[in-house]
Fold each of these.
Amino acid sequence: MSHRTRQLKVSSLARVEGEGALHLTVHNGQVQRAELNIYEPPRFFEAFLRGRAYTEPPDITARICGICPVAYQTSACNALEQACGVELDPPLAALRRLLYCGEWISSHALHIHLLHAPDFLGYPDAITLAKDHREIVERGLELKKAGNAILELVGGRAIHPINVRVGGFYAVPAPADFVALAEQLRRALDQAIETVRWVAGFEFPDLELDHELLAAWEPHRYAIERGDLRRTTGGVFPPAEFPEHVVEEQVPHSTALHARLDGRRYLTGPLARYTFSSSSLSPLARQAAVEAGLGAECRNPFRSVVVRAVEVVHAVDEALRLIGDYERPARAFVPVAPRAGTGHGVSEAPRGLLYHRYELGEDGLIRSAVIVPPTAQNQPAIEEDLRRVAAANLHLADAELTALCERAIRNHDPCISCSAHFLELTVDRT
Amino acid sequence: MGKPTLAVWKFASCDGCQLTLLDCEDELLALAGEITIAHFLEASSAVVPGPYDVSLVEGSITTPADERRIHEIREQSRVLVAIGACATAGGIQALRNFADVREFTSVVYARPEYIDTLATSTPASEHVRVDFELRGCPIDRGQLLETLCALLAGREPATPRTSVCTECKRRGLTCVMVADGTPCLGPVTQAGCGALCPAYRRGCFGCFGPMAEPNVPALLPLLRARGMSQGEVERVFATFNVAAFGRGSHDEPSH
Amino acid sequence: MIPVPHRVANRVTETHDAVTVCLEPVRDALPRSRPGQFMMLYAHGVGEVAISVSGDPSTSDGTTTHTIRAVGAVSRALHDTPPGAVLGVRGPFGTGWDLASVRGRDLVVVAGGLGLAPLRPVVLAALADRASYRHVVLVAGARTPREFLYRHQLNAWAWHEDIDVCRTVDVPGPGWAGGVGFVTEPLAALDLEPAGTTALLCGPEPMMRFCARTLQGRGVAARDIQVSLERNMKCGAGQCGHCQLGPLLVCRDGPVVTYDVAGPLLKVREL
Amino acid sequence: MATVVLDLDGLDRLIRVLGERGYQVIGPTVRDDAIVLAEVDSVRCLPAGWGVDAAPGRYALRRREDGALFGHSAGPQSWKRFLHPPRRRLWSGDFEPDHGEAPRYAFLGVRACDLAAIGVLNGVLGRGAFPDESFARRRRQVFVIAANCTEPGGVCFCASMGTGPGATSGYDLALTERIDGGTHHFVTEAGSAEGAEVLALVPHHEAPASEVRAAAGAVEAAAGAMGRQMPPGDLRALMRESRESPHWEDVASRCLTCANCTMVCPTCFCTTTEDVTDLSGQHAERWQHWASCFELDFSYLHGGSVRTSGESRYRQWMSHKLGTWHDQFGTSGCVGCGRCIAWCPAGIDITEEAAALARYAGQERS
Ligand SMILES: Cc1cc2nc3c(=O)[nH]c(=O)nc-3n(C[C@H](O)[C@H](O)[C@H](O)COP(=O)(O)OP(=O)(O)OC[C@H]3O[C@@H](n4cnc5c(N)ncnc54)[C@H](O)[C@@H]3O)c2cc1C
Ligand code: SF4
Ligand code: SF4
Ligand code: SF4
């Protein structure tokens, strides 16, 4: 038999946030390398945060990612408030959670309808999908708009909100401002439930992953804007212990650092959250999950689209609850005086755990900053998924294998700008 | 004649400006009806080869490969619109222009030798001819739609180069500088956001970059009189549009 | 004030970037304009700009004629509008040339480039009522011979004994028989009776200032010099404020004003 | 009708009567640390007990010792925003004018300076060969309740502009607020037939001569208590003579060219237009919004702007207000409300700049 060498280059994996490439080497029917090659040019946020004031990270780190700026703002605030020894007034904390719900709804609706669903239905994008199923895409866009409406009202704008500050907000809405929004969210709740039903009907390739899971967790509610850290192999630890467990390392094929949990690959994101907190979902969300055939936990990454849809139901429901309970806080922010020290902050970005650490000087200037975004944490796990998906499907033709690999990546809604850009897939078969 | 084609390109950025296009929830499908979205990787895996009628360029040029790519994009584009502070001013990552990149790299990456990056972060206009610039970090959705509609109609997009204060006052907001003593960059910042920050009783921090002929030196004493330290004054100008505001904030030695 | 729809009835190419269009009302006609007045022309979805009336003032069929040079988005769109298509028109606005005061006197018309557009109606009016004037002189300048508006008409006038035509260009081409240089040169050489002369000027501001200075140097009184001014205009109706030049609202008090008024204002930098 | 007295209930009733007659009543209310104009439906909306400390570049609410409703000077907004809105559609589609139902406003608490400003605005937009229909209609339908000033603010100078502190004409009703020995009431006069008609529907009693005298006296005293004044002399001539004054450069070094002064000015009328189309390009509209001579593009001609320097833009503003307005519209463009002084972030004071110009001009003459 003659040796056949096939070089497959699929430039550009679309419908992910950012740019990177995938390198797959298959030798004698064995997957040798499966690398998610992230080459997004580095933007050096941690470097230039040094010397900035403790008040600045919410605005500055938001610019790391246009899709999950609230996650950055919130993790930054959590870390800085901890460093300065400040607790939010409960109504302000509730408002922060509401804002974050907006980001979950918007980001998840975007990923489900515009980025991920076309994979399951065989379309290149949502616009082509809309030619056949306009009402579905419109529903997705409306859902996304409802999330943005929360971001715009509470945060000022959907991308890089301007109303977030360490200690709270610059201005807080009046209860009357929420009337139209609540109306919109009630419609969104129905749309979110329909979305769960819709995605539950997709066909899911078999894949059970065995990654360790890590997510923020709170005892009695679905952790979103804060929490301790919970892992599969037992135990809960506070954000301040994150550096003891998670170590980042550099790999040659990526401008993103790879994180390992006690030396092992692990996964953060919807599957991890759901696995730990499914019992804390709102009744409506739980019911939707059951109807969609989800158990107490979910370990098939292709089904993450269902988990996201369930999380949208929860976020809309939660937003409505928070609005229902809303009373205008007595003050828009808790005054925060700087002090020397270190603070750690986590929150659950739509695509996974986002950790910030700041070391402040007495003058309130930042001495050092560390940011560990979800995609950097997930990169080893994504590569493992790729390896397994490729190994199990080597019989497929190049085009199909490529498409499947791309889907395996999109399962994790990677946010490459957070860590790094655009995927170019190269399969070397020797 | 076929439908005009639109391409969206990304350089060093947060993706927020191109996301603004997807945030046009009410217009997205109508837009797709009027133009062919020929290249928009964030949204579609279908790619139509160039040339393109309109290219939206997001992000700043930070690597030798970027430098080559922006020229290729220019050659393929009839109209090139730079969108956002990164593409129009180098963005926040242009802070490196005033620092030592090797040192920056070593702070973020343990093994800097893997990283291939230019010493500077520069706007598209430093490399190629740019037909329009949309300011903002991020850009404003209304301005993006106006620009697309204007380009389709052959009109000059209405993106005024005047101060944020004009929008602030048209909205009927009360000036935060005068009434609250809050430092505000509105008087030197280009309009376009709709005076967002003053609407939340926050001083403008200049994310739309300098307006036409700003009188920055005249603002500095006013900021200090409202409680900003010299360091704060310098930092507020040295953020999202650091390269555009330049070092104009240094009217006196800081020590 | 709402634009009134007009159809492009006729479109004549004047130069590489200028056309003359004749617009006929789709329904209602606008009031008749006087030489020197202007209209606001609107191109669908693109915008609206001030354009002088350049047609024959004796036409009474409700049409209005304009000469447009494509310099920006709106003027380009107007320039490119094909016959049959509809434009919006508001007007007429502003003061016209004061021809009544020229009766029995010498009339000197000086046009630079596109400045000939608002002056053509004056020449046509003077020729139609030739007996009312003594000498009638037209001095027209352009960058190159090919950039003269109304070339055939200029040629015809040049042969006409009722009017002296003097053409000058900055850059002559092969076979150019006219003058070379600034319009002030023929103006300086003109056989003038200063006290009995009225001059009408239109062209770039520096040109008008130099011409006025030349004429004044020769004894023509400032109030016997009329100029047509140009300022940014949004409404044409004296309400947008853009066209101010000191005390003048150019759209209302101008565009045609006498030089005793305009001269001192044009001297002030950035007024 | 003779001068009458309304008490707080009477004023409340007045607001309701106007509402019943189809007016949208606009009056002062407190929002965002300032007294702004908004719809009011009862006296409870009015800023009882709020006063204002205003100085160049500074404005702060202050608690008063009494419960006065009109004891504050001009706020950041003027009535201009209702008669000549900041943004308005001129027409759409096939040149369909955007008439709609013009709102019928009742303005409550219009100061004499602002009343004068409405008159000045009317001189620009309401008269002339091509009146602005939208403005003219709004203006015609407005019901004006003037509030005479008894307590000018720190940046007021209406007395030196001859526009206040008392309203003399152009109103339907005029109030003078009086708080005297535990009573809080309004000495009220009708200035039009409709004013009298409305007044008749509101509980009131005839004003004793002493009250009328006291009210007039308070207004008169206010004239002597202005925060500042324009320099005496012919301002129009001063502006003409000062076109080349070296002083403009000095102002320009402080002026941000931010345009706040023009936006808050109750008479600055300038606008610019915007043409818009939808994505299909089929539907077109034309909008108008406030513009300012401080904007670089304001004087744009093909190839560049006429007024690029800060000097020339500040000069245009001030010369127009105090000088060329007379040439164009037969009055001064400045009514002395002081808004441009308070709301200039740089605290540039038109009265001081006028005084400085006068000093320069004086030096030149001598
Ligand atoms: C009274 C008057 C008569 C005119 N007559 C003619 C004529 O007969 N033929 C002709 O071709 N042109 C004439 N112009 C000039 C014409 O109005 C401008 O060339 C045109 O406004 C340029 O607009 P634009 O959008 O094509 O160009 P841009 O340069 O893109 O202009 C943008 C905007 O600036 C303003 N603007 C720019 N240049 C001028 C200008 N020169 N005058 C006024 N506003 C300007 C307009 O508001 C325009 O919308 C006249 C101008 C005035 C004031
Ligand atoms: S708040 Fe800021 S933007 Fe608004 S008027 Fe004041 S200085 Fe200008
Ligand atoms: S001062 Fe300026 S903005 Fe105000 S009316 Fe005059 S020109 Fe217009
Ligand atoms: S005078 Fe003051 S308010 Fe007016 S433009 Fe200058 S700085 Fe702005």
Amino acid sequence: MNEILRVNLLSPIALAFVLGVVARVIRSEFSLPKEIYQGLSIYLLWSLGLQGGVELAHATFDEIARPAVVTLLIGCITPISAYLTLRYFGRFGEADSAGIAAHYGSVSAVTFIAASTFVKGMGAEPEGFMPTLLTLLESPGIHIALAIGVMRSGSKTRPTSELLHEVFTGRTMVLLVGGLIVGFLIGEKNWSTIEPFYDTKGAIFRGALCLFMLEMGLLAGARLGDLKKVGPFLLAFGMIMPLVHGALGAWLGSLAGLSVGGATMLAAMAASASYIAAPPAVRMTLPDANPTYYLTLSLAITFPFNVLVGIPIYFKLAQMTQGVP
Amino acid sequence: MNEILRVNLLSPIALAFVLGVVARVIRSEFSLPKEIYQGLSIYLLWSLGLQGGVELAHATFDEIARPAVVTLLIGCITPISAYLTLRYFGRFGEADSAGIAAHYGSVSAVTFIAASTFVKGMGAEPEGFMPTLLTLLESPGIHIALAIGVMRSGSKTRPTSELLHEVFTGRTMVLLVGGLIVGFLIGEKNWSTIEPFYDTKGAIFRGALCLFMLEMGLLAGARLGDLKKVGPFLLAFGMIMPLVHGALGAWLGSLAGLSVGGATMLAAMAASASYIAAPPAVRMTLPDANPTYYLTLSLAITFPFNVLVGIPIYFKLAQMTQGVP
Amino acid sequence: MNEILRVNLLSPIALAFVLGVVARVIRSEFSLPKEIYQGLSIYLLWSLGLQGGVELAHATFDEIARPAVVTLLIGCITPISAYLTLRYFGRFGEADSAGIAAHYGSVSAVTFIAASTFVKGMGAEPEGFMPTLLTLLESPGIHIALAIGVMRSGSKTRPTSELLHEVFTGRTMVLLVGGLIVGFLIGEKNWSTIEPFYDTKGAIFRGALCLFMLEMGLLAGARLGDLKKVGPFLLAFGMIMPLVHGALGAWLGSLAGLSVGGATMLAAMAASASYIAAPPAVRMTLPDANPTYYLTLSLAITFPFNVLVGIPIYFKLAQMTQGVP
Amino acid sequence: MNSTPLKMVVIVAEPVLETRLVTELRGLGATGFSILEGRGEGTRHSHATDVPGSNVRIETIVSDEVADLIMAHVSEHYFANYSFMAYVTDVAVARGAKYV
Amino acid sequence: MNSTPLKMVVIVAEPVLETRLVTELRGLGATGFSILEGRGEGTRHSHATDVPGSNVRIETIVSDEVADLIMAHVSEHYFANYSFMAYVTDVAVARGAKYV
Amino acid sequence: MNSTPLKMVVIVAEPVLETRLVTELRGLGATGFSILEGRGEGTRHSHATDVPGSNVRIETIVSDEVADLIMAHVSEHYFANYSFMAYVTDVAVARGAKYV
Ligand SMILES: Nc1ncnc2c1ncn2[C@@H]1O[C@H](COP(=O)(O)O)[C@@H](O)[C@H]1O
Ligand SMILES: Nc1ncnc2c1ncn2[C@@H]1O[C@H](COP(=O)(O)O)[C@@H](O)[C@H]1O
Ligand SMILES: Nc1ncnc2c1ncn2[C@@H]1O[C@H](COP(=O)(O)O)[C@@H](O)[C@H]1O
Ligand code: NA
Ligand code: NA
Ligand code: NA
């Protein structure tokens, strides 16, 4: 285990992230231009979608069916488990509980990418249709948590159509779902002409990912100051909830017949908290939920936790559930 | 023919473009940051120029002379044919007719790139000096059309020097002409050290092109609403004029001794409408020409038409004129 | 010598730079979006640091010790030599003399990169720890020159801590030092997964460098108009001072046991003038130093001089001092 | 030349609010608006945006009445929960008829 | 401290017009200007720019006379055909002499 | 609805000055500020920035007293050596108490 942890902590991604945090800690004003940061995330999501689509074309319905079902199941369980924990153990208000739950019910694409890079490095090639599962997990959790929040907090509901539209036409969905479809349609021959640029195992993708993680570190570092504002309970929540959801993901994934690599990635998805799709949706739907809570949790606690130590743990869990020595 | 069309419609470029349009149709707010979009177009033009220059160094004067002459000829014919069609069949005003004509007299570099990607995919390697022809076709048409417009509409003329300066020092010219010269001078050995990054047949160039086409789709999609404003005549004009100019290009290109690939590309150039160099020039010189007309035509009608169905047709035409089975 | 010069002047980097200058001279309004320009410089510095770190892991203390010492020595000598020349031969005020000296006491990373590209092209592979030396040379010169300036001009001192913080947490330092550490830690295996993207001898790095040099040319060209403002003395200073510092660097580098390639690069560093770290530091610490002087000198005179003719000269000098035929 | 005295309402708010605000302003009678992206600091330090402190500035030139409507509307709906600032200033606008 | 009451003319127009406007403003007596890039919506919906709705805002601080000249000039030359807005507002400027 | 008449101090300066200015403004009593990045031209043509002419605009809404303090402060410390402009304008701010 320690060996795996060490390997992960010394990976370019992890170190680039740490460097970013450190830069903020020493109060450096350095940061990637906003447009470059956005450009990188567009490139990463688009690559993910394209390659996912190409590989999806090889998958049979039977292979995907059960993993898809458990993924949707996770999308329904995690927002509720997070909500209940916050509301009844943490004694948080309706809005805050539901708002935070929306983040843990959804998924962080970068955590997904970090997990896939990790398992591939470990030689545990995941199923090609994992990006498809990613798109399935993106939104249900957000809607469930917000529904709970809107019903139970007094907050004036906004037209659901508006919210649905927001989430389904967001950057992540357009690039991932769009990429999946495009990748599915172009076929191997076309793919080969662009693969080196988009290949998520390739040097360009990984190089871009390092730069992106550097900025992620800067963003997380910028929120370190808020750690004291969130208090001990949320601090613990931000690390224990992922472990619980991760274990669930590893277990259900294995049940559904995913390989160790695939189960690890499903675990990482379940454990991760969204910080792109969820925040604006929550901000608009539950205005009285405190953004400092959910942003600090997903960006400054859960994201680093998963990338630095969580993923190796989920890998170990997946190995254990599948009885791999 | 259908086969060729299918192949083209399933190419990454075409699908990325369609995805962009669809994203706008479902009212997604996603778009590439302006700076990334500009950065991509700079990279694409610069690559085009550099490689064109390297290959130009191999061409003899005799090879280029006749293709260059017909290109300039096309630069003189197309703006006039477009102007007359609009003025006398379409009954449009002087300013609008000339303004639109300026766009069809010039060329769209992205259409050029799409065509070169297509013919190379078809195994019909075009002449290495095609980018040189592209630079020749860029500006004459604009000047001719604007001259007509200024003379015939009452619009107060601005110093021609100003207009010339504008067009000749624009982004496209600097990068294409500049790239041609640099590529011409550095020679094979230097080129080989940067080729994988700039090679217009390489994965990086094509990958970047996909992202660019995605944004092109978003821009075109954003103008779909204006389609009803332009009316049926312009709608037809935006698809029939390219066919006419395309046929002319394929025919003249073949006469000038270009290969099927080269003739197809010359046809695509002739058929294409500029949307980078022409719009500002027209806006400043013919203020009373309606931008909705010329922008919708070149971005939302002629560009998609050429990229999706036009280019394969020009390819077929080139094959026929050259008696290729 | 002429041959080497010709080779250098026909390199993609040099020509891209010249193209940028020309574009400005013909009053083109073209330029890279600011964010793309910054993104490129981040990528270049980060690559430099990473690869430097990977190679640093191979170097023994003994190999680095003496080169490091002479580098720091250069960091102490060059600001003083520059200051004295300006103050007593040039009769410039305290603030201007010290302000300009701060630029020549520091280093231009792009000149460093141009030099490394040049010597590698010449087959004179430099030591792997050169980027480490680059970080050593970045700041001492700035602090020494500013200290002189603050002491001798009446200008109100600002807290040194503030200045130190500014310089040590700047973009260049974060990316170079950070990259060195990350590269040092990840090791060969991880490095190989991202090398093609970051390899400073690779096509991506060199391709990006060309685009960056194009913008550098535009920036330099934009300052050509200020050349007459700086007057003949500074004009000469901007070309002779680099030669003196370059000779010093080549000599000390050879003494310290650097190869011809390494000594050439140390010379180029010594000869170069900073235009990223130094300007803001000087602007804040010596407000009455005229920015037109130091910016025009480093961007429009010394930088082009080094990139176009200086580096080949330093190479020749290094060969001579080391008795290479 | 003749210019009309009108009000310019300036709103500085979290980026997520842009679309909704623009729709609401049109509803309240604004004929158009100018938007600038910037950053800032105030008393409330957190936003639902990955770039902390970034905000969007929406300016709209309107009649006095519409200005009052807008100020009343935003005070009621946004001050409590959002990072939000709104102020009105006097402007003399060319072809003012266009904006009322 | 003493500040001078002056006018600030604000122009929001299509990006293509920037260079020409700046030259003309200088000609009319402006000593400088500040430029911001933004976006917007008005009554005229189309621009000759690939990014729809993007515009450039040119602000110049000038004397009352110059302000009038500028407003008259732009009204005559740009309102008819371009996406264009111009207004004047009062500002109290430090070292005002610099701007007249 | 009730809004408070306050002053908005607008500073347009070289980007290098941003951090220092923001700290000083807070020190002089500003409760917040809005920042926009732009470009411009004036009488002084050179900056310590690689993108010539780029500047940063810092706006802060404050009481009349604080406005005077700020104007006095910047006039003393920045006019001599920096590319710098500062002006004050009147604004009617919602929930004005927040800014004084
Ligand atoms: N005193 C002020 N002057 C200028 N802008 C302010 C001021 N206070 C707040 N702002 C702006 O209003 C936004 C929201 O402020 P707040 O609601 O206090 O977080 C901030 O991001 C600033 O851009
Ligand atoms: N009522 C308004 N308030 C603020 N800005 C406006 C208004 N109307 C138009 N604008 C701005 O002026 C530009 C040109 O407007 P128009 O000429 O109506 O297309 C638009 O892009 C907006 O940025
Ligand atoms: N007359 C003016 N109107 C508007 N902005 C100005 C004016 N003069 C100067 N500026 C702005 O103030 C900055 C500094 O001006 P200066 O100190 O004259 O170089 C310039 O970059 C412009 O953005
Ligand atoms: Na999750
Ligand atoms: Na054409
Ligand atoms: Na130096």
